[in-house]
Amino acid sequence: MRVFVTGATGFIGSAIVKELVGAGHHVLGMARSDAGAKSLEAAGVEAHRGDLEDLESLRSGAAASDAVIHTAFVHDWSRFAKSCEMDKRAIETIGAVLQGSSRPFIISSGVGVAQGRAATEDDPPLSSPSLPRVSEVTAVALTERGVHASVMRLPQVHDTVKQGLITPLIAVARAKGVSAYIGDGHNRWPAAHVSDVARLYRLALEKGTAGARYHAVAEEGVALKDIATAIGRGLNVPVISIPQEQAQEHFGFFGFFAGRDAHISSAQTRAKLGWNPTGPSLLTDLGNMRYSEA
């Protein structure tokens, strides 16, 4: 299958590219720079120059492919709403090309939360005025227009270099000189190793169905206190608890997430796609990372 991957040189995208090539797929990877294009070509991938603001590059990439995996996103927290709007336009642009065909379109999003239980694939996406990402809502609208779209909901995706939202938490801990958690720190964040996530994208590409929502969750929830303790040990800084009302002041934008209890199940995803995560745990990767390089 010829697969167009946006964000092909990114953390998750590059792992997906490697997984697809290893499974015998032909990859057309979007690259924003000459350096990115060269890295893709060195990996045996056809480079496609463009970015999320170059809508024509998105159209031509989608038109030349049998499927699209969309992982690109501009992670600029200072203009997050603009990044979300850019993402929405990119998804709609690709969807317009794929409309009326059976070509799969996998769109990346985040996991949601549920009250008093583990959130499942049937629960609505995380939504808040302070978190205006609408990738999943846009995907649903495309499905209603005849696009073979599905959604991959991502937790904290990690290896020993990056760990999703935990990476900026490490930066905050370094800057503040303490590694903090909220209250008793029993609130949980789901996680998965990047190699397991990449394999799930491939399985969704090969076996997935239109309109499906998949949870790329290997660990249903890791306590934030345990995460903060691992960071404190790695940076050799004290680990402290702070009250919820100080979260915004201490963590900045990430205060929105720091106190949330996101207990997430992936039982449906595992059963439907035969996914069995085998990668290292989040705490294992946090214990093995080189904090001096983070």
Oligomer: single chain
CATH class descriptor name of the largest domain: Alpha Beta
Low-confidence stretches: none
CATH architecture title of the largest domain:
3-Layer(aba) Sandwich
| Structural domains: how many | 2
Count of separate DSSP helical elements: 12
Q: Order the strands across the largest sheet as they lie in space.
A: 3-2-1-4-5-6-10
**What composes the largest sheet?**
7 strands, parallel
> CATH superfamily assignment of the largest domain?
NAD(P)-binding Rossmann-like Domain
- What's the CATH topology label of the largest domain? Rossmann fold
- Rounded mean pLDDT score: 93
Distance between the termini: 36 Å
Structural class: alpha/beta
Q: How many strands?
A: 12
Task: Using the CA coordinates, give the radius of gyration.
Answer: 19 Å
The fraction of residues in strands falls at: 15-25%
Encode the helix/strand succession as letters.
Answer: EHEHEHEHEHEEHEEHEEHEHHHH
Roughly what percent helix?
40-55%
- The coarse overall form would be globular
